[in-house]
Amino acid sequence: MEIRVLAGNGCLGTGFKPESLERGVSLNPHVIACDAGSTDSGPSALGAGRPKLSREACKRDLRLLLLARDRLKVPLIVGSCGTSGRDVGVDWVTGMALEIAAEENLSFQLATIKSDQDPAYLKQQMASGRIRPLQPAPPIDASSFDSPVVGMMGTEPIIDAIQKGADVVLAGRASDSALFAAVPVALGAAPGLAWHAAKTMECGAACAVVPTADGMFATIRDDHFDIEPLDLAARCTPLGIAAHTLYENANPFLLTEPGGVIDTEGATYEALDERRVRVKGSRFHPSAQYTIKLEGAAIVGYQTIVVGGVRDPHIIKALPELIERAQGYFGARVADLFGDTLKPEDYDIEYRLYGIDGVMGALEPRRDTANPHELGVLITVTAPSQEQANKIAGFVAHVSSHLPVPGYEGIVSTIAYPFSPPEVPRGALYRFTLNHVNVPDTPLDMFRTTFIEV
Prior knowledge:
By secondary structure, this protein is an alpha+beta fold. The protein has two domains: 3-115 and 153-291 and 439-453, no CATH class; 298-432, Alpha-Beta Plaits (2-Layer Sandwich). It contains eleven helices and 20 strands. It has helices at 18-26, 44-48, 55-72, 87-104, 119-127, 155-163, 176-186, 191-201, 238-243, 313-338, 386-400, and strands at 3-7, 31-37, 76-83, 109-114, 131-133, 149-152, 168-171, 216-220, 225-229, 254-257, 260-263, 268-271, 277-280, 283-286, 292-310, 348-354, 375-383, 423-432, 436-438, 448-453. The protein has a ten-stranded mixed sheet with strand order 12-13-9-8-1-2-3-7-4-20, with helices on both faces. Strand 10 (254-257) and strand 11 form a beta hairpin. The chain is globular, with a radius of gyration of 25 Å. The two termini are 32 Å apart. It holds the Pfam family AtuA.
């Protein structure tokens, strides 16, 4: 048995070389797959339902993939459409596919698989004890399901759509690896090899040397799979392929999927040549209970930011203490301006000092280094409305630019702002609301498939 899988790139819209795709087509794959989303960039795409990448970029990649699929007459699978995989994201990518079909005179059977979850269903599942926390997980109640929630599908809805005749599958939120494992599993590949190859491919050529936005190709046989980048100038190494199992995983050997666990502890990695790696020994352990991960996001306020910098060594030394004093003034000023309509717990004024713990904050272990010669300052104001955040940021920015520095007489400028006005509204702020799994009756229960003759 030999099953060949082509990964277009790591994420629809990040681009790939047309010549790399052309080489992949020449290798005659059984399926083309491409991820289109993630939670890597935080909760905003899920909460707002807005894609991270532009329509122009995504349509460019999708056009080339659809044309390649038309030549090969094999399935094309795109998952987590619109970044978050919400229904609106599936509709967004579907609109592109229909436009491309009209522009290129293409015909295909399209399946859309949607993954938005009905709040009533989730509340019933919670009441039945079928929603369980992962670690760490925030506390939840029934209201946690009133904001957007998606379920992360495994291979089963995708396989079902293809077996029912789909040429192109545009899926909502999906396990990245499931997109690439679906066809090999359906064709009878060893599950451990199919899933491990899929995990290796899901970020495209990110595991190649040098990592880039481009395609990968896997050939799965009875007792091994071979993996290579499609760009002939790139290469894979045993170390790079083995290391990719740690990406986005707490355990480098055990990778949890909806239906089981990929076990790579006994896997071996062999360089076939300077570009290709052969992997053997991967296993897949089916779970006793099938689970679907839930992802939710909710709006928690609105933000305005101020960016500035400091180069005076006296101000750099004094700034942490000055900010602490200023916070007391800001609290009194907010109370004076907004009265009881804005309580202290309703807003937040935060400073990040890049050069002094700006990235890790209190967790920073290197506190014995020399004082920096310059400091980047990020002020973040969060409030219940954008108007309130803007108003607070206005006086915070002004006061912060003239903090009283010990040892200096008269007014001084403490923070220099590169923009005028310095306040930059960011819009809505979101947080993740769930880190839980649901136990459905079947792997298809939580997903809705629609077929369109294009």
